[in-house]
Amino acid sequence: MRYLITSDLHGAPAPMEQILRFYDAHQYDALLLLGDILYYGPRNCVPDGMDCRRLTELLNRRADDIIAVRGNCDAEVDQMLLQFDIMADYAVVCDEGRRFFLTHGHHYNAKCPPRGNYHALIHGHTHLQGFTRTADGMLIINPGSPTFPKGGNPPTFATLSDGMARIHTLDGSIIDSCTL
């Protein structure tokens, strides 16, 4: 399967609209949301163009394609608006013999990995995109944030397809890639 991964939308529909255009144009099979979907949190400024209702509409149209996990800014009131589950702290996706552990990153991350044998740990939370490998070879993927990128980075999302993980800017350009 082909996956598009994003995290830390924080209520901004405009970046998600760009991501969904890419998703459709490249015919991805599933959209993986790694939390912090609607609320921007007390440490961030209000995002430009914040419109939780619009973002909810965009995502609910894709509910059957979405696998999502809860971020530290997500709450039960958000779940009431969304037509796909967001309240789990993690999800496991198995595909072609690979096990991917999806989480937001505030509980499980490179410093506190999940127990078990996973090919990749995929998390957001830090708003810093990139790839690393643990000593035992597990790939850690962070798609960054399309709304509040940090570290001077551009807004980003990630994809998994054809044995590769890729980080993209919102126009679809690949800025980093890694073999799964």
Task: Describe it.
The protein is α/β, with parallel strands linked by helices. It has a single domain, classed as Metallo-dependent phosphatases (Purple Acid Phosphatase, chain A, domain 2, 4-Layer Sandwich), CATH 3.60.21. It has three helices and eleven strands. The protein has helices spanning 13-25, 52-60, 76-81, and strands spanning 3-6, 30-33, 66-68, 90-95, 98-103, 120-123, 130-133, 139-142, 156-161, 164-169, 174-179. The chain has a six-stranded mixed sheet, with no helix packed on it. Strand 2, helix 2 and strand 3 (66-68) form a beta-alpha-beta unit. Helix 1 (13-25) runs parallel beside helix 2. The chain is globular and about 40 Å long. The two termini are 13 Å apart. The mean pLDDT is 95.
Overview in brief:
By secondary structure, the protein is α/β, with parallel strands linked by helices.
Strand and helix map with partners:
Layout: E1 3-6, H1 13-25, E2 30-33, H2 52-60, E3 66-68, H3 76-81, E4 90-95, E5 98-103, E6 120-123, E7 130-133, E8 139-142, E9 156-161, E10 164-169, E11 174-179
Parallel strand pairs: 1-2, 2-3, 5-6, 6-8
Antiparallel strand pairs: 1-9, 4-5, 7-8, 9-10, 10-11
Helix pairs in contact: 1-2
Index terms:
180 residues; Purple Acid Phosphatase, chain A, domain 2; six-stranded mixed β-sheet; 11 strands; globular
